[in-house]
Predict the 3D structure of the following.
Amino acid sequence: MTPTLGAVEEAAELMMRFAERTGLTSDLPAQRYLWTDAFAVCNFLGLAQATGEERYTALALRLIDQVHHVLGTYRADDSRSGWISGLSSQEGEAHPTRGGLRIGKALPERAVGEPFDDQLEWQRDGQYFHYLTKWMHALDQTSRRTGQLQFSDWARELAKVAHDAFTYADRSGRRMVWKMSTDLSRPLVPSMGHHDPLDGFITCTQLRTTKSTQPSTPSGPDLEDEVADFAAMIAGQDWATADPLGLGGLLADASRVAQLMHLGAFAGSDLLDALLAAAVRGLAGYAQRNDLGYPASRRLAFRELGLAIGLSAIELVEKEVGTKHLGSSRAAEVDAEIKALTPYVALGPRITSFWLEPEHREARTWSEHRDINEVMLATSLVPKGFLSRHHGGSP
């Protein structure tokens, strides 16, 4: 997973263009989008590690601050103002994630009583749980990279408010909603995302593990109850999917689980085996479709790049399993699944190479999603910032 010098330089160029274009390093208006910015924070941390240049860490910190002040507050076209948590200006500065964070979509959220429009909803603001977990991960990576405990506190405060807002009970048991309003007062899309409870379980466990390894007792939520609730939701679930972005997420989750097992998390759990087995099934279905044979005009780069990032995580999983410290009750099955995944690893560089070609980036499918495409392309080139658990201090 060690990137080449050329890959680091290409990723740095992509990220600096993104930073200027979206108002991070320029006087242009700040254009923040939570999913993209979560990957961007991790990329800057990865570039700092790869180059030894702390200016990239400074950019990660600046981006976090900008996201909190843009997406943690109401839109300029909203009748409401201030922190979406309702906290005072001073308290909001101290706890910027306590009300969650907006997605950053182009259009305002659907008003109360306004008819639901499936197509329009994709362009409307609000809060997505799976975007919030990506931001929790970015904050956690930053906390461990810099040693600054406030990022860990903010991540756990976000986890607490997100769990409380997105989860509910009905006659079928504990469930989640897909999309909430900006102030988390009402659901905008009530259906449950396939991997949302899984995201919640792994991310909250990750945040608790970080908390347990910090040198002093951190403030903020413990997340014990939240982990238990998500654990109940995912019991017996099948995570298989043939969607490339979902597959990449499963593989990235598997690498997180493997690294956390090394630290004593998920003891006695077969979650790693379940994730890998689901990825094997999903990749078999995805490969049969031959989506990568289509021209750029018929492909969505960021979804494919999500898969490329996940495929690069297989090396991390194999490394952790090779330490023999995982204590998995199904070590033989895990080894067999890693071997079954190995033939697909080459798809990752194939995807990245395709989208590095300038002519492929002339397609409208690229330009319409330029920010997320370029940031995730950078992640596929230098994936350690997103995938590998950082350990404190400067390089």
In short: The CA atoms of residues 13 and 378 lie 9 Å apart. The two ends are 17 Å apart (CA to CA). The chain has a mean pLDDT of 94. The longest helix spans residues 271-289.
